[in-house]
Amino acid sequence: MLDLSFSKMALIGVVALIVIGPEKLPKVARTLGTLLGKAQRYVSDVKAEVNRSMDLEELKKMKETMESAARDVEQTVQTTASDFEKDWAETTSGLPSDLPAIEPPPPYYVRPDKNWRLKRGAVPQWYKARSGVRTKALSGAARVARYRPKPLNSV
C-alpha cells in the first residue's frame, strides 16, 4: 500500500492549507472523511459478500455429500430388507400354516400426569386469601374447634 509517514502527511496538510485555504479546509476534510468511510464500508461489504458466497458454495458441497450418503444408506437398507424378506420367506415356507396367530396384548390405560405447578400457580395466593379460598386442609378436630359456636356468657 502507500507508505505515508508523519512528515509526508504534514507536507500534504500544508499544501492543502495553502491551496484550499483555512476557511474551506475543515469542510473539505469532513467531506474527505465521509467519502473515505463510505469507501471502507463498501470494501467491507464486498468482502462480506465474497465470504458469504464462499460459505454458500461450501454448504452446497456439504449438502450434496450428505444427500449422496443418505442415498447410499437408503440403498443398503433396501437391499438388506429385501434379503431379509427372502430369508424369512425361505425359513417360514416349511412351517405349517395352521398355527394360531399371536395377538398383541390390549392397550392399558395410562393416567396422564397433571401439571400441579400450573394448577397451583394459576390463582395468586393473595387472591385466594382475600376471597377466602382454603389453601390448607384442616383436620377434623381443628375444624370442630374453629367452627364451634362461641358460648353465650349468661350474666
Overall, the morphology is flat
Order of helices and strands: HHHHH
Binned, the helix content reads 55-70%
**Using DSSP, what is the number of strands?**
0
Distance between the termini: 113 Å
Q: How would a crystallographer describe the biggest sheet? A: none
Topology diagram in text:
Blueprint: H1 6-20, H2 25-92, H3 116-121, H4 125-131, H5 140-147
How would you describe what is shown here?
The chain is an all-alpha fold. It has a domain at 8-68. It is built from five helices and no strands. The chain has helices at residues 6-20, 25-92, 116-121, 125-131, 140-147. The longest helix has 68 residues, at 25-92. Pfam families: TatA_B_E. InterPro entries: TatA/B/E, TatB.
Give a short overview.
This protein has 155 residues and is an all-alpha fold.
Any descriptors?
TatB, flat, mainly alpha, 155 residues, 67% helix
